[in-house]
Amino acid sequence: MRTEDILWLGFKSLKTRKVRGALTILSVVIGVASIIGLVSQTAGIQASVLSTLQSLGPTTLLVTPARTTTLTQADIARMMSIPGVEGVVPVVSAQMRLTRASEVVQVNVIGVDSIGLKTLLGEVRLLDGEIYPPSNTPLAIVGNGVAFSSTQGIQEVYVGQPITLEQPLGSTGRRITLQVAGILDKYGSSAFLSTDNSIFIPIDYAMNIFNRRAYSYIIVKAANVESVNTVSEYLTTIYGRNISIINVQQITQAVSTIMGFFSILLGSVAAISLSVAGLGIMNIMLVSVYERTKEIGLLKAIGFKDRNVLTIFLSEAMLVGIIGGILGIVAGAGASQLVPTLIGTYFGSSNLGGGGGFQGGGAGMQGAMASFSYTPVITLDVVGIALITAVSVSVLSGLYPAWRASKMEPIKALRYE
Amino acid sequence: MAVRKDEIVVKTDNLWKIYRSGTLEYPAVKGISIEILRGEFVAIVGPSGSGKTTLLNLIGTLDSITRGEVYLNGKPVSKMRGNELAKFRNKTLGFVFQTYNLVSYLNVLENVELPLIASNTPRSIRHERAKKVLEQLGLGDKLNKMPNELSGGEQQRVAIARALVNDPSLILADEPTGNLDSKTAQVVASILKNVCDSGVTVIMVTHNLEITKSCNRIIYLRDGVVEKEVLQN
Ligand SMILES: Nc1ncnc2c1ncn2[C@@H]1O[C@H](COP(=O)(O)OP(=O)(O)OP(=O)(O)O)[C@@H](O)[C@H]1O
Ligand SMILES: [Mg+2]
């Protein structure tokens, strides 16, 4: 028998039982859509986290004070002297309130020198204005979300305009006025640094107005990727448990591993739904074989071989897999775009709710979820795997019913009422 | 090819069929030996349960032989298995059933094409051949109709077209007029008669004594044995 005739007969028979065919296909669609939908989320989150880390660069170590330690000017010199260290960037940060035209918003004020800013952001992309000079001046570079209102996207802060910041009550309440030197492009927020909700000012000025002598954290740049771990070990030898070190390279690997694991986990959960679809296909096809007993008998009487009957039924199952797979990919791609919005709604996606940058290890992470955003990533690999899985599951599920059909004796089939 | 009336198309040699269910044995065909020649139109008649269908199915290679042998065109059928048997049925035999057994989701033309699909016939030849046979049976205007849009007589003509499309040497018809009124039954019988005249052997099981009039020979069965054979001009 010709392949095109086998497929044609499979398709014809699938088409006759419309509702039933649609339901079997739907079960495959759901399975494939969940694979695509779920795996694309982890891939998107991974890409987002990794790109943040990558902007810091794999040679970066983040040093935050632990216990009662403080990191001061003296520590900068000390870290500079470690072999393999190329640069040391101190950062100080605080939460303040900004009164804008339409609303009062919480922002992170981050003191960092102009060179350190490049280290922090990877690349400084300005929409307007310029970077502040390396001096003790009340100039500020504001994040995109600070300059534009979250609701309508209307610009409320301009270059050259003065802005007033207030320290929240309770602590040493103070007011400062800064002049806007530049406005940053949209960076998107990440788990580590909500650039869009931050205001960057020269570190010396920040130390002055915050009245601090200690830094919030220090960025240590190693000369190259190979020396990162040695530098990290040096730091541990010097400071022991008095500092915590975030090794970007290590985190990158850890994130990759964890997200890879989640990908497999979610993918497997989705694959289970696909195997349930497989059971459905098997069940429905067994019913179909039973109902078509007479037809099978007839086909055999007029000269169809066992193998022909087998492949006709398998082709029907395969078509279910292919149609369901393709529709599932489309549905999954659509659904995957909705998930980030749903997550955002669930956690309350206020654009300016972000935490205080790298502030004290975990503290910075707390608010991060609220402002964390990502775009789901659908790779060709995942699409291919989902489609192949759908077709294999369908064909495997059709195998037993099709085999039953092929082994049917023509006489029993024809006498069947 | 000239029709050689003496050529033996079907021969059964002490043919037995014993149905077994558990320890019970029921002999449905008990040592039947008959010979049927090319171009003969043979009717098998007899009371219900006398073994007519069983005999026809044994001749048609659809059922397994308990004892004895069936020779079709001189070939012992019990030696054939699987694909060889399928191919043999496809090339040599044509079946017509009481309940037509058309495939419900295929149209008239496609139903008739089925045996040619099984034998790998190219699409264009397939269409031509099926169309020609349907036209000969007066169904040229029904090619794209679905089976459920046809009358019983039309459906049975489609089934006969399907049986003829592969140029078989033997047509086996089990009560082909059983579901038809007497007038339509006559039409179907005369079609089968015409088929015989073209050199194809037809064996027909029937309860309708009226349509046996056009047959060359009537075989009377009773309790699994041939009770008598009557030759008609
Ligand atoms: N699969 C089977 N198992 C057991 N007995 C069977 C089976 N098939 C047929 N029989 C029996 O064999 C006998 C002959 O059956 P068969 O169908 O050949 O009769 P028939 O002459 O065609 O009858 P009818 O005119 O009613 O169609 C019947 O008694 C029937 O009950
Ligand atoms: Mg019968």
How would you characterize the overall build of this protein?
The radius of gyration of chain A is 31 Å and the shape is elongated. In chain A, strand 6 (162-166) and strand 7 form a beta hairpin. Chain A folds into two domains: 3-53 and 252-415, no CATH class; 60-223, no CATH class. In chain A, helix 2 packs antiparallel against helix 13 (380-406). Chain A has 417 residues and is α+β, with helices and mostly antiparallel strands. Chain A has helices spanning 3-16, 18-56, 73-80, 114-121, 144-147, 203-210, 228-239, 248-291, 293-301, 306-347, 363-366, 368-371, 380-406, 410-415; strands spanning 60-65, 85-99, 104-111, 126-129, 139-142, 162-166, 175-184, 198-201, 217-222, 243-247. With 233 residues, chain B is of the alpha/beta class. Chain B has one domain (8-231): 3-Layer(aba) Sandwich (Rossmann fold), CATH 3.40.50. Chain B has a six-stranded mixed β-sheet, sandwiched between helices. The model of chain B has no long low-confidence stretch (mean pLDDT 93). The A-B interface holds A 1-2, 5, 9, 12-13, 15-16, 294-295, 297-308, 410-411, 414 and B 57, 60, 62-63, 82-83, 86-87, 89-91, 93, 95, 97, 101, 103-106, 114-115, 117-120, 162, 166. Bound molecules: adenosine-5'-triphosphate and magnesium ion (MG). Magnesium ion binds at residues 52-53, 174 of chain B.
